[in-house]
C-alpha cells in the first residue's frame, strides 16, 4: 500500500491522532489520559498516516523554538505497523515543515529504544537527558539548513561550479551548472544536447555523472559551511533509471536526507556521508541515485629540509 502523510483536520482524525499518542507513549507507563498533550498543541504542526479504513497508524508533531531551532515530539507508530517505513515517512514530513519555517536545526529527546531509528535518519547523538518513566533519553539533533547567508551560498555555488569545470573536464563538456541552493536543497542542471544518446534521450553515463556530481556538490558545500577541507570521493553508489530523460535534466539533493556527520574531519579523521539524489521533471522522479561519499583529510604538504 502507498501510504500518504496528512495533517489531522476532522474531529475524528484528531481523536485518533491523540489516541495513538496515548496508547503508544503514555498508557504502557500508567500515565493518565490527557498526559499525552501539552500547551503547545495549537502552535505546532501535526502529521499522521491512516490505513485504507481510516485507522491511525503513525503520528508525530513539530514546533518552533528560538534561534532557528525546532523540536519534534510525540513520534509514535502503532505496534502492528512498525518496521514498514511509516515512522520515517512522518519524520521526513515534519522535517520538511521545519525547512518551510526556515529553521536551521532540529532537536528531539529520543527514547533509548528509538536511538537507532533516529541515527539511521541522519540524527547526531547529543547529551544524555533525565530518564522519563524510567526510560533513558538522549538529545538528538539534525541540521536542516547550512550556516551562512544567501550571498555566501551564492558565492560558494560559483566556486563549486568553477571547481567542477576546472578539475573534472567532463563536467564542463556536459555544461553542468548549479541551478539553485537555499541552504537545504541543491539543484543542478545539464542540457540535453551535449548529453544525448543515439535515441535522442539523455545518455545513462551523463545521468550517472550528473547525479554523482550533485551529491559531491552537497558534500562540498557542507565543508564550506564547516570551514573544512578534504578530498571528496564516491565510495559506492547505485542508480535506478526509471524513465527516459527527453529534456534538460534537473537533479535535486536535500540536506535533511544526508546520513553521516562530516564534523570529525576537523580531527583529521575520514568521514562518510550517504545521499539520495533525484532527477526530476514535472513532479516525476526519472532517476534515483544513492551514493556513499567519503571525505579524506587533506595531508599537510611535506615541508622542505
Ligand atoms: C521508533 C518508531 C517511531 C520507529 O517507527 P517505524 O515505523 O517502526 O520505523 P521505520 O520502519 O520508519 O524505520 C525507518 C528506518 O529506521 C530503522 N529503524 C527503525 N527502528 C529502529 C531501531 N529501534 N533501531 C535501529 N534502526 C531502526 C529501520 O530499519 C528503517 O531503516 P531503513 O530505512 O534502512 O530500512 C516506532 O518504533 C515507535 O513508535 N516506537 C515506540 C514509540 C517510541 O519509542 N517513539 C519514539 C519516542 S522518542
Break the fold down into its secondary structure elements and pairings.
Elements lengths: L4 E2 L4 H15 L19 E6 L5 E9 L4 E9 L8 H15 L4 E7 L3 H6 L3 E9 L2 E9 L6 H18 L1 H6 L2 E5 L3 E6 L13 H23 L3 E12 L7 E6 L16 E11 L2 E14 L8
Parallel strand pairs: 4-5
Antiparallel strand pairs: 1-2, 2-3, 3-4, 5-7, 6-7, 8-9, 9-11, 10-13, 11-12, 12-13
Bound molecules: coenzyme A (COA).
The site of coenzyme A has 18 residues, from β4, α2, β5 and α3.
Number of domains: 2
Considering DSSP H and I runs of 4 or more, what fraction of the residues is helical?
Answer: 25-40%
Characterize the quaternary organization of these chains.
Answer: single chain
Low-confidence stretches: none
Q: What is the CATH C-level name of the largest domain? A: Alpha Beta
Number of E-type strands: 13
Order of helices and strands: EHEEEHEHEEHHEEHEEEE
CATH architecture of the largest domain: Roll
- Amino-to-carboxy terminus distance: 68 Å
Q: Order of strands in the sheet with the most strands?
A: 1-2-3-4-5-7-6
Specify the CATH homologous superfamily of the largest domain: Hotdog Thioesterase
Task: Work out the helix count.
Answer: 6
What is the typical, i.e. mean, pLDDT? 96
User: Ligands bound here?
Assistant: coenzyme A
- Briefly note the CATH topology name of the largest domain: Thiol Ester Dehydrase, Chain A
Strand content: 25-35%
Shape: globular
Q: What's the Cα radius of gyration?
A: 22 Å
What is the SS-derived class? Answer: alpha+beta
Biggest sheet character = 7 strands, mixed
